[in-house]
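User: Here's a chain of 274 residues. Predict its fold as C-alpha cells.
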Amino acid sequence: EMNLTQSAISRQIRDLELQLGVTLFERIRKRVVLTEAGARFLVDAKYLIEQTEGLVYRTMASAKADATLSVATLPTFGSHWLAPRLPQFLENNPKLAVNLESRWTPFSLQEQFFDVAVHFGRPIWAGASCQPLCAEYMLPVASPELIASYKIKGAQQLPKAPLLHLQSRPTAWRDWFEQNSTENDEPFRGHRFDQFSMIIEACVAGLGVGLLPQYLIESQIDLGRLQVIDPRPLQTEDAYFLAIPDDKAEKPGVVEFTNWIRAQISHPIVETAE
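Assistant: Prediction complete.
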C-alpha cells in the first residue's frame, strides 16, 4: 500500500523503535509478531489512521458542497427515524453534505469531528450543550398474526404472550404492567436484545410482544406489520437530546438541522389492536 520494499519497511520499523525506546516486533519461528508494547501502540495507531482516513473521505465527499454537517446518532434512531426523513432536510438544504454515523455512548465531539449528536439519557455531555428533543413513550406492539394466535384483546392477555426485552431497559415491562395495574408474576421472562432495531424485526416476524418507542415504529404501524395492543404508554425517566459542541452552535447547517429535527418530532395517535 505504501509502495515500499520489505527492507525499507524494516528500516522504518528500526528507526521507530529507536525513537520510542521499545521493541515493537520480534521474530518467533520465522514469523514477525507484535510485542506487548507493540500491541498497546497498535491500538492508538489504528485509531489515528482511521481518523485520518475518515477525514480524507469526508473532505472528498464534500468537495462540491458549500458546507458539511456531521451527525452522530443512536443506531435505531438513525435507521428507523432520521434516515427516512433526511431527504426532506436535504431538499431544503441542497448545498449541504451530510455525514451520518452511529454511536452508542457519549464521546468527544471535537476529537471525532462531529457537529451534533443525538443523545439519549440526561442533558449532560462534556463540552456541549444539550437541547431537548422529546421524551420516550413506549407502547406494547406485536404482529397481527401473533395477536390473533394468542387472542390478545388488550393488556389483560399480555402476561400469557412471549415478551421481548431490551438489555438497556431491563425493567421496562415490569414498569409498564405496574403502571397499568396489570398482574404479571413473570415480567422479566422472554428473549433479550441489545438494540431496538432487533426487537422491531423480531416483533414483525412474530417472535413476541415488544415494548417499543412510538416514534421508531410509526412506519411499521402504517404498513400494518405491527399493531398497538394497548395505547397507554410507558414514559421512561430519560429523554432524547441534541448535543451540540459549544464551538459549533452557529456553524452553517447546525442551526438549520436543529430547527428542522425539532419540528419533525411528534407523537401521533395510533390505533389499537381492538
